[in-house]
Amino acid sequence: MQASRARLFKEYKEVQREKVADPDIQLVCDDSNIFKWTALIKGPSETPFEGGIFQLAFAVPEQYPLQPPQVRFLTKIFHPNVHFKTGEICLDILKNAWSPAWTLQSVCRAIIALMAHPEPDSPLNCDSGNLLRAGDIKGYHSMARMYTRLAAMPKKG
Amino acid sequence: MNYYARVKKVNTEITEQVSTKLTSKPSKVFIAKDPERERERHPIFPIRSQRPVQTTPFSPQAMQNQEGLQVQVDGEVESGPAPSEPLSSLAAEYQSGSAILLEKIKVLGEQYAAIRRTRGDGNCFFRSFMFSYLEHILESQDVSEVDRIKANVEQCRKTLQSLGYADFTFEDFFSLFLEQLDSVLQGNEESISHDELILRSRDQSVSDYVVMFFRFVTSGEIRKRSEFFEPFILGLTNATVEQFCKSSVEPMGEESDHVHITALSDALGVPIRVVYLDRSSCDSGGVSVNHHDFVPAGNDLPNASDSPEKVSPFITLLYRPGHYDILYPK
């Protein structure tokens, strides 16, 4: 408990220093609870998520950093490896490939990379995975784009 | 509205939402329902479970699988080593098993007095190494060895830094190991006894942190000398050196292979002997037990054929397919 708190505090300071360095990620710690974080990540360019801003929720376990943080999308997203309803993310580093060498910041980077490189063979969103597996890139793009516009972009006017 | 203003706007919305514990319906961002309840319904993130406590008594019949050498996973919840046992307890495991194994255990008995079992959760090599090393220091009170390994640890720290690891990701693990080193040396306030060393090694928070220290050191060494390790890694998997470190060295519970042992031994400058107990045999009649000494690269003299004779490892591990335990010479 003490160890995880100390580690998170170091990450907090690091995030403050790195803020300018990575404009695609805004990682914010809950005011009253250092085990709760939220992040805003920019949808990667040349993907259907471009221009969108996606919100992630981090719940950090007491055994952190020996155990991975629990991360999910709060913003609705149409992506093969993200559960459409719960926002759960299927990413090896959040499960068995986790190691303390990862940080909350680098997890955000990994999620951005996953957005740009979906893995339709291990889908949490089968509809999305099936479109890609069937080679219907256009269908996937337009669905993903629609949800980006609906959920991840500010309404005009 | 430019990007930053937008982020700021969304961000303030989020802060409001978080502060109201996500109960209010946000107007502009889709939010999944009550996160806690959602998580209950979809147990998404596997919680690293503790191994279930085995209640059934050990039965030799259970060992009789095809290999004849399935290692019994001990039933302890503690992550550390069990009390040491005489080698005869090893023979009892294979009583009705392979004759070759029984013969080999008899041969082992000529040189080794006891075995200490470690938890079989994929970290057994590192846990065995940790206990064996600290126990050696505790018994020998070899201050110069402690100074030597500390210098190596500092070198490992520099290696990780030069590979681009952020200090805060590994420094806690380093300092916990250094703490253990100091505490096994007697004569200071933090000094501990042998019993306390056992207790501490069983304390999962200590043991796991030291294992993670070794994993960082191992990974750093492999990546630093990636040209040397690459062919060995290619022989094990299809992964690149970096992928291998990320997926098979750094994560807890990933089992150790020759590559890991070589790297750890080299990085810390500690020779390790591994005795192999398997069913292999030679036709020439007599049964012999193979062992391999991992001698740190730095110690290698130009005439490599002579050098292994000169180094006698003070750490001896018993390898049975899939598991490492500690062996005690007579």
Automatic annotation (TrEMBL), chain A:
Keyword terms of this UniProt record: Acyltransferase, ATP-binding, Ligase, Nucleotide-binding, Peroxisome biogenesis, Transferase, Ubl conjugation pathway
Stretches assigned to the UBC core domain: 3-153
Keyword Cell cycle annotated: no
Signal peptide, first to last residue: none
InterPro entries the record matches: Ub_conjugating_enzyme, UBC, UBQ-conjugating_AS, UBQ-conjugating_enzyme/RWD
One BP term from GO: peroxisome organization
Active-site residues per Swiss-Prot or TrEMBL entry: C90
Enzyme Commission code: 2.3.2.23
GO molecular function term, any single one: ATP binding
PROSITE patterns reported for this sequence: UBC_1, UBC_2
Family the entry assigns: Belongs to the ubiquitin-conjugating enzyme family.
Name of the protein: E2 ubiquitin-conjugating enzyme
Taxonomy of the source species: Eukaryota, Viridiplantae, Streptophyta, Embryophyta, Tracheophyta
TrEMBL record, chain B:
Ranges for domain OTU: 113-330
Statement: the UniProt record of this protein carries the keyword Protease: yes
UniProt catalytic activity: Thiol-dependent hydrolysis of ester, thioester, amide, peptide and isopeptide bonds formed by the C-terminal Gly of ubiquitin (a 76-residue protein attached to proteins as an intracellular targeting signal)
Gene3D superfamilies membership: Peptidase C65 Otubain, subdomain 1, Peptidase C65 Otubain, subdomain 2
Database matches in PANTHER family: UBIQUITIN THIOESTERASE OTUBAIN-LIKE, UBIQUITIN THIOLESTERASE PROTEIN OTUB
Family membership noted in the UniProt record: Belongs to the peptidase C65 family.
A Pfam family reported for this protein in Swiss-Prot or TrEMBL: Peptidase_C65
Catalytic activity, EC: 3.4.19.12
Protein name: ubiquitinyl hydrolase 1
GO cellular component, one term: nucleus
Secreted found in the keyword field: no
Molecular-function annotations in GO: cysteine-type deubiquitinase activity; ubiquitin binding
Keyword vocabulary terms for this entry: Hydrolase, Protease, Thiol protease, Ubl conjugation pathway
InterPro entries linked to this entry: OTU_dom (IPR003323), Papain-like_cys_pep_sf (IPR038765), Peptidase_C65_otubain (IPR019400), Peptidase_C65_otubain_sub1 (IPR042468), Peptidase_C65_otubain_sub2 (IPR042467)
One GO BP: protein K48-linked deubiquitination
